[in-house]
């Protein structure tokens, strides 16, 4: 008998809510197979099976609040639970394909820490087509990264269980492969329309998860009129965020009957309707959440890039030959940002309820544009890296972002973000905060402009800098000083060497 325990939930996270069980009592489970998803006020966590066996008991049901160390359920051997396992229903015969020993299941893989589900993006093969082992069959898209699933063996794609657009979870069977060609291909079943949440179940939404509680405490959201879409009508984090983005009338007063959904408008002959990807939906939600939560303000300055460009032109060949990576501008900016963060610690902080968390580590998010949208991988401990180490780290993260191979851990935990719109020709912009961070630096295009130097008008390569910051904890004086420190560091890079 093995206990399924609530794991440590993270720094300053004391409790979680059971969001979803992927197995029922009596189901067979494999070691490391995802069993349950926990929702905290910061992230979602997945709990895996500690051993092979049978899920004998679920002790904490969906919606229950648990703390680290709580026993969620138990796993036993098949012999221990033969009598306890639920009897099979007569009206639900096994699928014909499962009876064939020549069929192999294709399952959704584990898609990363705290990633509970994904959507079938596209099938590379059709039912009935021949496939080779390790050949890519399908791409699954999550709200962070895209995951490719390969064929486990040579054969014929006998059945597609999850069609394009279907939502899938780790361990779910999405297709079957016939290894001897004896099975007739089966077309994917149409995905059932989601059932509407009953209005009568709204009273159950009084029990709020930690994530929803945090939104309520920070925004004063009135949940009385929100129709929950979770189990038994409970309000989910997504319901709360949707209410914030559309506050009238549900966020301010109880409503007996939810408003009828607005029908999508008709598409004209010269228009095309395309469903937003999960990544784009997440980007949209997070940006709207950022605007709704933080008191955002942007301040500007400009920097003379003459010295940095001269250093780069002088040493770029020797630098690349010695370190195997090109010398760019981003490493200089990263060094200048770290120096400024040390001088103005409020910009490297985070708001947690009514507390401020000052961070004594410098993990920079570097915004990267990809074909599927913007991602912000994190370069850790930048204060300990050399210019070469920074360039290598950024180059590696950029390649992974474009290849879609970033892990969730690489996308979380940044303390400050840098975004470079100048590579696309942007002259000036107001970047939006990457919550819960309270600062983001926008770099822009380098343009030759006339400047007065020692009483003479000369052409200098100038760049506008923009700092967007959360005015709740960063004052205007601190924001302006922060940009001045970056300007000083870039116009006089010797400061990095002398640490002044």
TrEMBL record:
<dbReference type="InterPro" id="IPR023213">
    <property type="entry name" value="CAT-like_dom_sf"/>
</dbReference>
<dbReference type="InterPro" id="IPR001078">
    <property type="entry name" value="2-oxoacid_DH_actylTfrase"/>
</dbReference>
<dbReference type="GO" id="GO:0004149">
    <property type="term" value="F:dihydrolipoyllysine-residue succinyltransferase activity"/>
</dbReference>
<keyword id="KW-0450">Lipoyl</keyword>
<dbReference type="InterPro" id="IPR011053">
    <property type="entry name" value="Single_hybrid_motif"/>
</dbReference>
<comment type="similarity">
    <text>Belongs to the 2-oxoacid dehydrogenase family.</text>
</comment>
<feature type="domain" description="Lipoyl-binding">
    <location>
        <begin position="103"/>
        <end position="178"/>
    </location>
</feature>
<dbReference type="InterPro" id="IPR003016">
    <property type="entry name" value="2-oxoA_DH_lipoyl-BS"/>
</dbReference>
<comment type="pathway">
    <text>Amino-acid degradation; L-lysine degradation via saccharopine pathway; glutaryl-CoA from L-lysine: step 6/6.</text>
</comment>
<comment type="function">
    <text>E2 component of the 2-oxoglutarate dehydrogenase (OGDH) complex which catalyzes the second step in the conversion of 2-oxoglutarate to succinyl-CoA and CO(2).</text>
</comment>
<keyword id="KW-0012">Acyltransferase</keyword>
<protein>
    <recommendedName>
        <fullName>Dihydrolipoyllysine-residue succinyltransferase component of 2-oxoglutarate dehydrogenase complex</fullName>
        <ecNumber>2.3.1.61</ecNumber>
    </recommendedName>
</protein>
<dbReference type="Pfam" id="PF02817">
    <property type="entry name" value="E3_binding"/>
</dbReference>
<keyword id="KW-0816">Tricarboxylic acid cycle</keyword>
<dbReference type="InterPro" id="IPR036625">
    <property type="entry name" value="E3-bd_dom_sf"/>
</dbReference>
<dbReference type="InterPro" id="IPR006255">
    <property type="entry name" value="SucB"/>
</dbReference>
<dbReference type="InterPro" id="IPR050537">
    <property type="entry name" value="2-oxoacid_dehydrogenase"/>
</dbReference>
<dbReference type="InterPro" id="IPR000089">
    <property type="entry name" value="Biotin_lipoyl"/>
</dbReference>
<feature type="domain" description="Peripheral subunit-binding (PSBD)">
    <location>
        <begin position="207"/>
        <end position="244"/>
    </location>
</feature>
<feature type="domain" description="Lipoyl-binding">
    <location>
        <begin position="1"/>
        <end position="76"/>
    </location>
</feature>
<dbReference type="InterPro" id="IPR004167">
    <property type="entry name" value="PSBD"/>
</dbReference>
<dbReference type="Pfam" id="PF00364">
    <property type="entry name" value="Biotin_lipoyl"/>
</dbReference>
<keyword id="KW-0808">Transferase</keyword>
<dbReference type="Pfam" id="PF00198">
    <property type="entry name" value="2-oxoacid_dh"/>
</dbReference>
């Amino acid at each position: 008998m093995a206990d399924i325990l609530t794991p440590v939930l993270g720094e300053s996270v004391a409790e979680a809510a059971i969001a979803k069980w992927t197995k029922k009592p009596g189901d067979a489970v494999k070691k490391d197979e995802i069993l349950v998803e926990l929702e905290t006020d910061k992230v979602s966590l997945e709990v895996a099976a500690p051993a092979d066996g049978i899920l004998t008991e679920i002790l904490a049901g969906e919606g229950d609040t648990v703390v680290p160390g709580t026993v969620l359920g138990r796993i036993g051997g098949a012999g221990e639970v033969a009598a306890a396992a639920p009897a099979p229903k007569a009206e639900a015969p096994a699928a014909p394909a499962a009876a064939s020993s020549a069929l192999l299941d294709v399952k959704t893989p584990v898609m990363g820490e705290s990633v509970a589900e994904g959507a079938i993006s596209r099938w590379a093969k059709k039912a009935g087509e021949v496939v080779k082992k390790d050949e890519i069959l399908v791409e699954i898209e999550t709200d962070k990264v895209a995951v490719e699933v390969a064929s486990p063996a040579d054969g014929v794609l006998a059945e597609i269980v999850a069609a394009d657009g279907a939502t899938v979870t780790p361990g779910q069977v999405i297709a079957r492969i016939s290894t001897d060609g004896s099975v007739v291909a089966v077309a994917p079943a149409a995905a059932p329309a989601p059932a509407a949440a009953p209005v009568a179940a709204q009273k159950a939404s009084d029990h709020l998860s930690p994530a929803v509680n945090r939104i309520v405490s920070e925004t004063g959201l009135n949940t009385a009129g929100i129709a929950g879409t979770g189990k038994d009508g409970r309000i989910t984090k997504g319901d709360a965020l949707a209410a914030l983005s559309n506050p009238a009338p549900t966020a301010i007063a109880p409503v007996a009957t939810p408003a009828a959904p607005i029908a999508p408008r008709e598409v004209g002959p010269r228009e095309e309707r395309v469903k937003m990807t999960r990544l784009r939906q997440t980007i949209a939600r997070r940006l709207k959440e950022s605007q709704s939560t933080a008191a955002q303000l942007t301040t500007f300055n400009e920097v003379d890039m003459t010295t940095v460009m001269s250093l780069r032109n002088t040493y770029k060949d020797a630098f690349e030959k010695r370190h195997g990576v090109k010398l760019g501008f981003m490493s200089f900016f990263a060094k200048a940002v770290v120096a400024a963060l040390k001088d103005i610690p409020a910009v490297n902080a985070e708001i947690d309820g009514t507390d401020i968390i000052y961070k004594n580590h410098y993990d920079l998010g570097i915004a990267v544009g990809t074909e599927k949208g913007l991602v912000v991988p994190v370069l850790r401990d930048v204060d300990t890296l050399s210019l070469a180490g920074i360039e290598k780290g950024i180059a590696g993260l950029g390649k992974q972002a474009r290849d879609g191979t970033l892990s969730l851990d690489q996308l979380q935990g940044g303390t400050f973000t840098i975004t470079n719109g100048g590579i696309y020709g942007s002259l000036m912009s107001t970047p939006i905060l990457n919550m819960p961070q309270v600062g983001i630096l926008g770099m822009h295009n380098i343009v030759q402009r006339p400047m007065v130097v020692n009483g003479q008008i000369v052409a200098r390569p100038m760049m506008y800098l923009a700092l967007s910051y959360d005015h709740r904890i960063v004052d205007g004086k601190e924001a302006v000083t922060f940009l001045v420190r970056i300007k000083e560091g870039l116009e006089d890079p010797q400061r990095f060497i002398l640490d002044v």
